[in-house]
Structure to design on (340 residues):
């Protein structure tokens, strides 16, 4: 009897054959089908999985925590703008010009559940036909890694041009058309205690002051066409790498003030200008930079939060001794949210 029991245990310990495995899988599937899954059961399983993913993470809860509420409803007002400045020498005389795009404003509302969000945005001026440009802003702020993607197709730049010994020339709309892509990304070293999303997406709460060194990468691409006296075309492609620092200051419970700077030096640059049929390459001149600055003020009061945030991009190409080009892009956001 003992030997028979030992033989059975040895047999059970042997690996299952392919046929045995298939029979086992079929039995499991059939048994699962005999237990109907209701919509409530599916939601409970999904909710449990999302809960685990939402609250897991290597953070120091003395400094950073997740909100306890699962649902978040948020309303936002966005205001953005862009400017292009040029400066240099033309036949021995100094010139300077500045062109500003019309401001763009949007209203948006979003609903989030354990980190998954659904947002809808409206541009009242565009709906009424007063704003004809196109702009796309996509951002993702994680506790360790995040990025901003900004694309703008603008034709409503207006400005002026000054040249030494001449009267100022006013530059009307529709003379300049610009397509610009800005991309910047960060990596936070002290992600256990310092939270970017606490300032910009409010998916975390900063409880105590903390800062972090940041790695940064930036990219900027632009295609501009100016129809003035003679047609001019400008093409820019820049990639920058650098480092910076961010700090979350918590002066008292419920308040957060954020500031960060990410300067990157351009390590790859391909820039050229075309006047009529003449193509003029613009040579790299150190230091050419892409700088991203961010700031935010957040107030938490119970399940309510509100505040302001700002993102600013600056790109410098060339030098004022011959020809320099400065690009600026900014966005200000006011928000109000409720956690449920």
């Amino acid at each position: 009897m003992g030997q028979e029991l030992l033989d059975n245990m040895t047999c059970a310990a042997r690996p299952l054959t392919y046929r045995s495995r298939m029979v086992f899988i079929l039995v499991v599937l059939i048994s699962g089908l005999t237990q109907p899954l209701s919509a409530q059961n599916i939601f409970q399983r999904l909710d449990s999985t999302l809960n685990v993913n939402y609250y897991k993470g290597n953070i120091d809860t003395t400094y950073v925590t997740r909100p306890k509420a699962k649902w978040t409803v948020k309303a936002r007002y966005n205001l953005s703008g862009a400017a292009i400045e040029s400066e240099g020498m033309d036949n021995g005389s100094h010139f300077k010009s500045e062109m500003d795009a019309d401001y763009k404003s949007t209203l948006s509302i979003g609903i989030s559940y354990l980190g998954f969000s659904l947002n809808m945005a409206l541009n009242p001026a565009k709906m009424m036909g007063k704003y004809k440009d196109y702009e796309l802003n996509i951002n993702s702020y994680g506790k360790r890694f995040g990025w901003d993607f900004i694309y703008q197709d603008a034709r409503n730049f207006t400005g002026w041009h000054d040249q030494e010994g001449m009267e100022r020339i006013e530059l009307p709309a529709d003379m300049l058309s610009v397509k610009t892509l800005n991309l910047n990304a960060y990596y936070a070293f002290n992600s256990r205690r310092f939270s970017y999303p606490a300032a910009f997406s409010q998916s975390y709460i900063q409880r105590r002051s903390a800062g972090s060194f940041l790695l940064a990468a930036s990219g900027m691409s632009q295609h501009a066409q100016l129809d003035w006296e003679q047609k001019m075309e400008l093409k820019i492609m820049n990639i920058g790498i650098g480092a910076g620092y961010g700090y979350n200051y918590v002066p008292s419970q419920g308040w957060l003030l954020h500031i960060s700077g990410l300067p990157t030096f351009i390590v790859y640059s391909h820039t050229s200008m075309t006047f009529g049929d003449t193509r003029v390459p613009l040579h790299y001149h150190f230091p050419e930079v892409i700088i991203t600055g961010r700031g935010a003020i957040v107030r938490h009061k119970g399940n309510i939060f509100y505040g302001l945030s700002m993102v600013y991009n600056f790109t410098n190409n060339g030098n004022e001794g011959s020809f320099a080009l400065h690009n600026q892009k900014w966005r200000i956001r006011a928000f109000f949210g409720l956690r449920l």
